[in-house]
Amino acid sequence: MNNKIDQLSADNIRALAISMVEKANSGHPGGSMGGADFMHILYSEYLKYDPTDMNWIFRDRFFMDAGHLSALMYAQYHLLGNYEKTDLENFRQWGSVTPGHPEIDVKRGIENTSGPLGQGHAMGVGAAIAAKFLSARFENLFDHKIYGFITDGGVQEEISQGAGRIAGHLGLNNFIMFYDSNDVQLSSMTDEVTTENTAMKYESWGWKVITIDGHNHTHIRSALNAAHAELERPTLIIGRTIMGKGCVTAEGTMYEGQCELHGKPIGATNANFEKTLQNLGANPEDSFAVYNDVALHYAAILKNKTEESAARKMQISAWEKQNPQLAEKIKQFFNGDLPALDFSTIAQKANAATRDASAAVLGYLAENVENMIVSSADLSNSDKTDGFLKKSSVLQKNNFHGGFLQAGVAELTMAAIANGIALHGGVIPVVATFFVFSDYMKPAIRLAAIQELPVKYVWTHDSFRVGEDGPTHQPIEQEAQIRLLEKIKNHSGDQSLLALRPADAVETSVAWQMALENKKTPTGLILSRQDIKDIPTSGNSRFDEASQAKKGGYLVKSNSNPDITLIANGSEVATLIEAANELEQNFKLNINVASIISEGLFRSQSAEYQESVIPKGALVFGLTAGLPVNLENLVGTKGKVFGLDHFGYSAPASVLDQKFGFTSENARKEILKYLENNNYNLLK
């Protein structure tokens, strides 16, 4: 322990952070200056990882909640050798590896993409759950720590209640969070917006809470030591810090704790950039330099961490030799390898609701996939994730042998936790709620899409046929919103989300197969509450025919020379088949019907295949229980979509079908009207 070098290291981090913001003329310097002491002590003395193997699965993990403090992270990781000097100099610039808010980059130490406050630490809770889940299966081998870093804004975000409640309830003693409490937020002081006692709040959720001087290195060590010794609770370390720690004016007087230091370059405030650099021991002529003594200190730190991780790897290697089957299973889990699964063998009841069909699949997965955590927002008996729960058990404090997380009524928290589970690796997260409440989940869904995480969403009660619960529970615009993410490419160039609305029970089995095999992006399954008539099969195997859904869309009813093609997804497909059969019988028409389970996936197929399903320039009619825009791009400019342009009403589903026109009889009328409007001769 060397107080002088520790202070110098923290000041070097401060100097680097404010230099990044100053050069970019954009960013948040003050909080980075306040958090530098904790970051230095944590990374130099506590956080365990292998500098030569950043993806080492047994590493400790650090989850940043306050993404606006990216300069703090880049400065710290520069001292660790993860970023070059030029990377810091190109902060927030096009093509740089130092974006304004940190984006997942494990090889450089960035474990999660953060920006929207609150989600970062919730992802940390998810990673802690994943570690506990894996430790329960592998003799406590995953005993590493998950660290979080949160600020006043993250504590204020409503998601903090869900994350705090769940972490405390589950006794996640492997989760340690530093709260950088400096009484300042972006546009005001904190006392203008809150008077809560944060310590008491977290204590009431079952956390260990330690309040310290966040600039006192002895206090930081003492708090971290106590957190490591805690066996029953997650720990919140409230570090009382100073916004803009070390700032001075042009006259050399201290200028700290001011609101304006939060979100402006130092040179744009009443502090002076050059004088502040000098106060921190930096050279204003070379402000991106690492101090000589600090460079030597961190070289020793890296050597020590490499040696410590090598020793730990030897211990793990010995365990693997003694437990070869378990060792192989760990590799399979983290590679994302699935066991041999045969979805065609899953027995599906005739004419079942697709939520019930999903329950059958989940029951099968509970018995065959060992590394799944399924969660529901207090709806497991309605979204039918109880199909999994009945063959598993609930995760509990000191007992993570089960696979079901009862999240309670906390859709956003649940979805953010799922992101953290996926980020940790080794575990497949599944989260479920009513489709209308995907609205509550959307910020976490978006971050899953950005981070390219294979989270699985189960959204049931997919239409106005929720019925008596009324417009608040009847999704109308939700499918259109979710499918927008199918139109956005992630940074790997793939569609950022796969949304699947299956047409019947067997297609639901196929949809689940597609979801599990999709390891590159999140997948959403949009499922019905009401029963749906099975799609007729023209061959021996409905499953084989439904497997064509893997192309995003396929013909469920086919003629070689169709007069018209009808398209839909979900329950409306069966309605169109019934209407088509009656039209063919009465008007001698040749009608094709297509199930387009995913427009995004369908549009990724060859033009030839797309045209074989939906002929270009032909008559195309679409039926959707949501907004017409769901299918308008598919039917083309000549096509017609019958959908909804209003919210729902409270009434039985069968009544709403009649009132809204979603019967085969009305579908026939609308199709005939469309044909007549296009001068089609129905008397030929």
From TrEMBL:
<dbReference type="InterPro" id="IPR049557">
    <property type="entry name" value="Transketolase_CS"/>
</dbReference>
<dbReference type="Pfam" id="PF00456">
    <property type="entry name" value="Transketolase_N"/>
</dbReference>
<dbReference type="InterPro" id="IPR033247">
    <property type="entry name" value="Transketolase_fam"/>
</dbReference>
<dbReference type="GO" id="GO:0006098">
    <property type="term" value="P:pentose-phosphate shunt"/>
</dbReference>
<keyword id="KW-0808">Transferase</keyword>
<dbReference type="InterPro" id="IPR005474">
    <property type="entry name" value="Transketolase_N"/>
</dbReference>
<dbReference type="InterPro" id="IPR009014">
    <property type="entry name" value="Transketo_C/PFOR_II"/>
</dbReference>
<keyword id="KW-0786">Thiamine pyrophosphate</keyword>
<comment type="subunit">
    <text>Homodimer.</text>
</comment>
<feature type="domain" description="Transketolase-like pyrimidine-binding">
    <location>
        <begin position="352"/>
        <end position="534"/>
    </location>
</feature>
<dbReference type="Pfam" id="PF22613">
    <property type="entry name" value="Transketolase_C_1"/>
</dbReference>
<dbReference type="GO" id="GO:0004802">
    <property type="term" value="F:transketolase activity"/>
</dbReference>
<dbReference type="Pfam" id="PF02779">
    <property type="entry name" value="Transket_pyr"/>
</dbReference>
<dbReference type="InterPro" id="IPR005475">
    <property type="entry name" value="Transketolase-like_Pyr-bd"/>
</dbReference>
<keyword id="KW-0479">Metal-binding</keyword>
<dbReference type="GO" id="GO:0005829">
    <property type="term" value="C:cytosol"/>
</dbReference>
<keyword id="KW-0106">Calcium</keyword>
<protein>
    <recommendedName>
        <fullName>transketolase</fullName>
        <ecNumber>2.2.1.1</ecNumber>
    </recommendedName>
</protein>
<keyword id="KW-0460">Magnesium</keyword>
<dbReference type="InterPro" id="IPR020826">
    <property type="entry name" value="Transketolase_BS"/>
</dbReference>
<dbReference type="GO" id="GO:0046872">
    <property type="term" value="F:metal ion binding"/>
</dbReference>
<dbReference type="InterPro" id="IPR029061">
    <property type="entry name" value="THDP-binding"/>
</dbReference>
<comment type="similarity">
    <text>Belongs to the transketolase family.</text>
</comment>
<dbReference type="InterPro" id="IPR055152">
    <property type="entry name" value="Transketolase-like_C_2"/>
</dbReference>
